[in-house]
Design a protein that fits this description.
By secondary structure, the protein is mainly alpha-helical. 49% of the residues lie in helices and 6% in strands. It has 18 helices and six strands. The strands form two sheets. It has a three-stranded antiparallel β-sheet. Strand 5 and strand 6 form a beta hairpin. Helix 4 crosses helix 7 and helix 7 runs antiparallel to helix 18. The chain binds s-citryldethia Coenzyme A (SDX). The site of s-citryldethia Coenzyme A has 21 residues, from helix 17.
């Protein structure tokens, strides 16, 4: 029998060996199937943070961190960013192919059909305190969708899965805009289905009933670009959370809510908010060396937000695209006296200093997608506490696509990592009266 490609792991103490199958990948590194190691050698493998571990087989997104490559279903992010639109990218991520005209019209129609939010959900939002962080609201409301939509909870029914996917993608913009409106005390707006997906979101965010409103084409295009770039990204922390939750059979709304909770962390999707806070704290470019020194000091927990990435050891291709868009948008909006220009200039200067600093060069620390995205969002008038919400709206597409792929993956079972135990050995219970 053709043994195929294998690697052998040998224990130099017991002399035992195990041959592990190498599973080829279409792009990128092949993987070693280590499932027989515990039974053959008696060891678990150990990989905190899963930096060297493949958790699943996927066909959705591919990243080459060394070359700075990002593909959605094989299409380069640069081409999609330039030539596609967000909802078409959503279709591509979900279905694996770009839609024909008929498929596009049908998909667009379904999204529009489900763009409104149940009125009880809007009452539900009003139960939050006035200064609730929109991400905290979003996590709660998306999780609660399962209490409204009982007709899409059977994860073994492909029709239930398909409708839940449409509902989440269609409704998350209205939910997000409602969280924003609640925070500023303005009445909620309703979707206008004659508008495009991104245009509709902007009108639900910024329109008021007293005035006609349509977003500027420049603003709409900038946000469309942001959302295309943030739609999916392999098995990042939040997507891995969605898959782990999905592996237990949890309903899709609960899984996406869990992904949103994970995205909120400043090391992940919360970084865009943290970048702008950091740039604002750097009161002048002369202050930059002080912050770079802090970032290099092991005793200082401060990190340069927007720098570094688990996978990219080159500039994040999304950062390159966003940096140019940032420049164009600020030029277009108000030129040099644009109030955000100083923030952008500080960002450019910080990038230049960091990229020439040995510490960052040695560790392949480059700007990531979050480094410039906060500036674009600020230029669009989106408040700081809504930055990660925008990221979550876009990444809902990727989370849903990955969750759908998991449901159809025969290789998948409930996620249950092992551990390396370093606690107390076996010991007997001591009654209180006998303790010291
Ligand atoms: C996103 O996974 C994804 O795909 C995520 C994402 C997506 O689309 O889903 O791309 C979105 O989350 C982008 C990342 C946003 N986060 C930030 O910008 C926060 C700042 N970045 C760091 O927290 C960090 O770079 C991480 C969390 C992004 C990556 O962490 P790793 O891979 O675990 O890197 P590490 O901590 O092992 O760092 C290696 C070295 C360490 O120094 P030494 O121990 O070697 O001395 O680099 C240092 C770190 O201290 N380092 C930094 C740094 N990031 C890493 N030093 C200063 N500033 C930084 N930003």
């Amino acid at each position: 029998m053709n043994k195929g490609h294998t690697v052998t792991l040998t224990d130099n103490v017991s002399g035992k060996s195990v041959e592990c199958e190498v599973m080829e990948s279409v792009l990128g590194r092949s993987v070693i199937n280590i499932q027989s190691v515990p039974s053959e050698l008696g060891f678990f493998t150990h990989d905190p943070g899963f930096a060297s571990t493949s958790s699943c087989t996927s066909s959705i997104t591919y990243i080459d961190g060394r070359q700075g490559v990002l593909l959605y279903r094989g299409y380069p992010i640069e081409q999609l960013a330039e030539r596609s639109n967000f909802l078409e990218v959503v279709y591509l991520l979900l279905h694996g192919e770009l839609p024909s005209k008929a498929q596009w019209n049908a998909f667009n129609g379904k999204i529009r059909q489900h763009s409104m939010v149940h009125e009880s959900i809007r009452r539900f939002i009003s139960g939050y305190h006035h200064d609730a962080h929109p991400m905290g609201m979003l996590v709660g409301i998306v999780g609660a969708l399962s209490t409204f939509y009982h007709d899409t909870l059977d994860i073994n029914d492909p029709d239930h899965r398909a409708l839940a996917a449409i509902r989440m993608i269609a409704k998350v913009p209205a939910i997000a805009a409602d969280c924003y409106k609640f925070g500023i005390g303005q009445p909620f707006m309703y979707p206008i289905n004659s508008l495009g997906y991104v245009q509709n979101f902007l009108q639900m965010m910024f329109a008021v009933r007293a005035e006609p409103y349509l977003p500027s084409p420049v603003a709409e295009r900038a946000l469309e670009l942001m959302m295309i770039l943030h739609a999916d990204h392999e098995q990042n922390a939040s997507t891995s959370t969605v898959r782990l939750a999905g592996s237990s059979g949890a309903n899709p709304y609960a899984c996406i809510s869990a992904g949103m909770a994970t995205l909120w962390g400043p090391a992940h999707g919360g970084a865009n908010e943290a970048v702008v806070q950091m740039l604002r704290n750097i009161s002048s470019p002369d202050e930059i060396p002080k912050y770079v020194a802090r970032a290099k000091d092991r005793d200082d927990p401060f990190r340069l937000m927007g720098f570094g990435h688990r996978v990219y050891k080159n500039i994040d291709p999304r950062a390159k695209i966003i940096r140019q868009a940032c420049h164009d948008l600020l030029e277009d909006l108000e030129g040099a006296d644009q109030p955000l220009q100083p923030l952008f200039e500080t960002a450019l200067r910080l990038e230049e200093i960091a990229l020439n600093d040995e510490y960052f060069i040695e560790r392949n620390l480059y700007p990531n997608v979050d480094f410039y995205s906060g500036i674009i969002l600020s230029a669009l008038g989106i408040p700081l506490n809504m930055f990660t919400v925008i990221f979550a709206i876009a990444r809902t597409a990727g989370w849903v696509a990955q969750w759908m792929e998991l449901q159809e993956d025969s290789e998948q079972r409930i996620g249950r990592p092992q551990q390396r135990y370093v606690g107390q050995p076996l010991r007997e219970y001591v009654p209180m009266e006998d303790r010291g």
